[in-house]
Design brief:
Butyryl-Coa Dehydrogenase, subunit A, domain 1; Butyryl-CoA Dehydrogenase, subunit A, domain 2; binds flavin-adenine dinucleotide; about 375 residues; 11 helices; single chain
């Protein structure tokens, strides 16, 4: 394992932070941040070196997402999903598929996204209703995905469908320009994560090629369990820990710079000091737990998945709690949006609803810890 967290923090400060405010205000996908990510070939973070990538794994993925999200939660989330889709190709793609896509991902020519959730099954994205049928040896995909982050900006979308061959799920790489693929544009007006471009994606008799199936027939559920579960769940933990750390740093700076007429500062008030202590403790605990759970996942510890789920639950609570307290210390100035805490609070709320939602995950964790099967 390499520790690339500080390096990625520096990268984010220079290449992501300058655009964060406008990404939120204009609700626009972070194009400039992704230009820099592509130019620096960070799209190839988890691609093995033999395909031109950086050859990193779960820990460096977590460090990088955490560092990016500390500057911009939207950029961290979109980037995290790209890595998850890439990992599915790395772990399950045929040699032909890897040779076709991985070098282009490494060079920054391709950006990926996840098209999993559907209205009919909501937060249970691992139960898709979307269909693929075989008609005269041609494959047609039909259905609708409800929230697809990076929609229109990603080139390929990893789509989970029912298998046309066997009982089970398949996953597919679908290009955005295929005939029959459309997006419900302008339908994203989220409370937070405003640059996400999370819009519905429609598949109307999309003619797909079997060579674009990732893995063998019916391997979709296995991909969800082995790749999506660790990389996505720890990725969400990292995104919302980034939000908590950003709020923590922002409010500490503000408490020192906000002065009263008698020259005293906000941070001289004991109650504020108590809140700052709590905020720092919560944000730092989320950071250490997230990084430790990623390490456990990379080591293949027996309780790795429990740690990863637990880290994500903790980070989701910490992000909201830190931002709530920071709003209080920030007073009317924070409420009037003159410092960025309110944006971070809005971003933090997404943590609890992103699939699998924290309510669903806490049931899974309780079951896993008591040796009961989870989906
Ligand atoms: C910012 C953002 C970005 C997203 N990006 C993507 C993306 O890129 N790709 C993608 O596929 N999806 C994405 N999603 C969708 C997301 O992952 C969820 O699938 C979606 O938010 C579910 O919304 P819903 O209204 O259908 O939830 P519902 O299924 O209606 O659930 C609502 C709430 O009910 C509760 N609940 C439901 N079922 C249970 C249960 N069995 N046990 C306990 N509680 C339960 C939970 O509290 C849950 O939050 C994104 C969502 C957001 C907010």
């Amino acid at each position: 394992m390499s520790n690339i967290y500080n390096k990625m923090l520096d990268f984010a400060k220079q290449n992501i932070a300058p655009y964060t405010d406008n990404v939120d205000i204009d609700a626009k996908f972070p194009i400039d941040s992704f230009e820099a990510i592509k130019k620096n070939k960070l799209t190839g973070l988890v691609v093995p070196k033999e395909y031109g990538g950086m050859g990193f794994g779960l820990e460096e993925h977590t460090q990088t997402v955490l560092a990016f999200a500390s500057s911009c939660a939207t950029t961290g989330l979109c980037y995290m999903m790209h890595n998850v889709a890439t990992m599915c190709i790395v772990a399950y793609g045929s040699e032909e598929m890897k040779n076709e896509y991985l070098p282009k991902i490494s060079s920054g020519d391709l950006l990926l996204a996840l098209a999993f959730s559907e209205t009919g099954t909501g937060t249970h994205f691992y139960n898709p209703e979307i269909t693929v049928i075989n008609s005269d040896n041609k494959l047609f995909m039909n259905g609708r995905k409800s929230f697809v982050t990076s929609a229109l900006y990603a080139d390929y979308y990893l789509v989970l469908s029912n298998s046309f061959e066997v009982e089970g799920l398949d996953s597919w790489l679908v290009h955005k320009d295929l005939s029959g693929v459309t997006f419900e544009e302008s339908s994203w007006n989220g409370l937070g994560m405003r640059g996400n471009a999370s819009m519905p994606m429609i598949f109307d008799n999309v003619d797909i090629d079997i060579s674009n199936r990732v893995g063998t027939a019916g391997s979709g559920a296995e991909q969800v369990f082995n790749v999506v579960a660790p990389f996505f769940v720890i990725g969400l933990s990292a995104v919302y820990t980034g939000v908590a750390l950003n709020a923590c740093n922002t409010i500490i700076d503000y408490s020192m710079s906000r002065k009263y007429s008698d020259e005293s500062a906000l941070c001289n008030i004991p109650t504020v000091q108590n809140h700052i202590a709590d905020i720092y403790t919560n944000a730092t605990s989320a950071k250490h737990f997230t990084l430790a759970a990623a390490k456990s996942g990379a080591n293949g510890d027996a309780d790795a998945l429990a740690q990863i789920i637990s880290a994500r639950l903790n980070a989701s609570d910490m992000a909201v709690s830190v931002c709530n307290k920071a709003m209080k210390i920030g007073g009317g100035t924070a409420y009037a949006k003159r410092i960025t805490i309110e944006r971070l609070l809005r971003d933090a709320y997404a943590a609890q609803v992103m699939a699998p939602s924290t309510d669903v995950l806490s049931i899974w964790l309780g079951k896993a810890l008591t040796n009961q099967p989870i989906p």
